[in-house]
Amino acid sequence: MVKTLILVFISGNCYIFLQKNIMRIILLIFLSVLSLSLFSQITEGEDILRKDNTDTLQGWTSGGLINTAFAQTGLTNWAAGGENSLAGNGLASLFLNYKNNSSALDNTLDLGYGLLKQGNNQHARKSDDKLELTSKYGLKASNNWFYATLLNIRSQFSPGYNYPDDTTKISDFLSPCYLLGAVGMDYKPGPRFTAFIAPVTIKTTIVNSTLLADAGSFGVVPAIFDENGKIIKHGKMFRNELGGYYRMAINWKLMENITLNSKIDFFSNYLKKPGNIDVNWETLIGMKINKYIAASISTHLIYDDDIDIAVDTDNDGIADKTGPRTQFKEVIGVGFSYIF
């Protein structure tokens, strides 16, 4: 049962399949986790979770994974063709938690950044950019349940461009920045799994760049222009939503040298299209080769009904349609790693 849950939870490496079946997959994940919680009394997994819960030490615990990877290709008079390239990528997933008999505090920090320089391009292009901080505090309500509050901040480090156009900026530091505050209940049967549900949640989208705010990027109200194209009123830099929030997370040691961290968030805006649920799903698998060499696989799936993405439907090189789209990113790296 536990192995089946893990396989379901980390599925989704195929973009096309996810794009066509996203809501079915999300529903399957939810039902699988719910089934585990309801029937765990008679499974081997419950025995493991009970043991973990009993053995968990009081006080502070910390740990994480840091990974850096580099790739280089050099070609000279290569008859088969190709381009020189240089790429580098780094990621870090850290946690700092505190627990006593009546309360628990969980803090996580996820960072990622990557650059790619290929061919005769003068400037390196960004291939990964992530900055996320989550803090959750809970007061014990019963054996495995906590009254809890959660704060999540998600943004990026540097500007993003609409490549191959490297002059048109489409994102930047704090543009966007997603700030989410939630109050609800947290279910923690052990250190490996947690499920947080919040019927009262405030989600704020911040677009700190005036240029992007005026364009109405990331769902904020755009600027108002006169008939000559002159700005009458600048776009808003903030957008607030009131809704419900659900978050699941797994931290699992699959084998002696393989760890899995996966989390999935759902948000429904009560005031606008509540049936169009925002999804944010991240998975990180770390595979230790020796003391300092390791491989990592990171995936990130996003669906946000307020973010319009331009697409070229007739393959003529010109974007002719915009709308919400399933976003998917995969980063695979082999290099220096430190797990603690």
Q: Can you walk through the features of this model?
A:
The chain is mainly beta. The chain contains four helices and 18 strands. Helix 1 packs antiparallel against helix 2. A hairpin with a 4-residue loop joins strand 4 and strand 5.
Strand residue percentage: over 45%
Main sheet record: 12 strands, antiparallel, barrel
What is the tally of helical segments?
Answer: 4
CATH C-level class: Mainly Beta
Could you please say which CATH topology applies here?
A: Outer membrane phospholipase (ompla), Chain C
Could you name the ranges where pLDDT drops below 50 across 5 or more consecutive residues?
Answer: 1-21, 23-55
- Secondary-structure element order, N to C: HHHEEEEEEEEEHEEEEEEEEE
Class computed from helices, strands and strand pairing: mainly beta
CATH architecture: Beta Barrel
> Strands across the major sheet, in which order?
1-2-3-4-5-8-9-12-13-14-15-18
Please give the radius of gyration in angstroms: 22 Å
Bin the helical content: 10-25%
The 3D shape can be described as: flat
